[in-house]
């Protein structure tokens, strides 16, 4: 498995990273987890190392420990949305709709200008058939993604989010939700 150096999480085909380095490396997740645990023992209040342990546990298929570590990272550094996005990805993969919805709202409260977060929230609203709200969020995601230079959005904490998929998929999502909204209003 490959990941951008320092941290990566992919959800919905979209990657996010907390490192400015963009190369990929092959990871030995057991060795990474051992390193993370060693660093946690040295600095138990390090949100970064708990985040890294969460990613390693996730890669090793240990959902419960991944969630525990990411929740602790979020508690230790409550203003950093990257931990919330990590939890969101785990909940999304497990189909835990209410938890993924709430943690995504928490992340967006910390950084409302993240086009990836807005896009993902629009998708949640779409799945709930809240057409007007979903359309508004997709349009916001499109505007924010268009304003970001390159293929990444960098949040105020320096976390990188790959937004190429947002740019690629947002027009289709806007068209799809617009048609559904029109279809539903015509049916009433």
General description of the model:
- The protein is α+β, with helices and mostly antiparallel strands and 188 residues long.
- It folds into two domains: 110 residues, Serine Threonine Protein Phosphatase 5, Tetratricopeptide repeat (Alpha Horseshoe), CATH 1.25.40; 64 residues, no CATH class.
- It is 65% helix and 10% strand.
- It has eight helices and six strands.
- α4 packs antiparallel against α5 and α7 packs antiparallel against α8.
- The longest helix has 24 residues.
- The termini are far apart.
Write the SSE topology.
Layout: E1 2-4, E2 9-11, E3 14-17, E4 24-26, H1 29-42, H2 47-59, H3 63-76, H4 81-94, H5 97-110, H6 115-127, H7 131-147, E5 152-154, E6 160-162, H8 164-187
Helix pairs in contact: 1-2, 2-3, 3-4, 4-5, 5-6, 6-7, 6-8, 7-8
Enumerate the spans where pLDDT stays under 50 for 5 or more consecutive residues: 1-22
Largest sheet, if any? 4 strands, antiparallel
**β content, as a range?**
5-15%
Which architecture of the largest domain would the CATH scheme give at its second level?
Answer: Alpha Horseshoe
How many structural domains does the protein architecture include?
A: 2
Number of helices: 8
Q: Could you say which overall geometry the principal axes of the C-alpha atoms support?
A: elongated
What string gives the helices and strands in order? Answer: EEEEHHHHHHHEEH
Helix/strand-derived class? alpha+beta
CATH superfamily annotation of the largest domain: Tetratricopeptide repeat domain
Biggest sheet: strands side by side, in what order?
2-3-6-5
User: Do you know the CATH topology of the largest domain?
Assistant: Serine Threonine Protein Phosphatase 5, Tetratricopeptide repeat
Number of strands: 6
Q: How helix-rich are the residues, as a percent range?
A: 55-70%
Mean pLDDT: 87
> Distance between the terminal alpha carbons, to the nearest Å?
50 Å
CA radius of gyration: 17 Å
CATH class call of the largest domain: Mainly Alpha
